[in-house]
Design a protein that fits this description.
single chain; about 70 residues; elongated
């Protein structure tokens, strides 16, 4: 009787748990609604434009502060 309760409380082995988790993950991925390729391209373009704009702003501020520091140290 003690062996029967011990077997019930025992966790499934590691490979079975990983296999179950992978199966669950793939079933969730199948239910995802993926965006269309044109939507991905448009949003990627928007992100790149915003990153380029911030790059220009930060570079401009950096150059301005470097000039100011150069004037102060002379």
């Amino acid at each position: 009787m003690a062996n029967a309760t011990k077997a019930k409380n025992k966790k499934p082995n590691w490979f079975k748990r990983v296999g179950a988790k992978l199966k669950e993950t793939f079933s969730e991925i199948k239910r995802v609604t993926w965006p269309k390729f044109t939507t991905v391209l448009k949003t990627t373009g928007v992100v790149l434009v915003i990153v380029a704009a911030f790059l220009l702003i930060v570079t401009g501020v950096d150059l301005g502060l470097m000039k100011l520091l150069g004037l102060l140290t002379k």
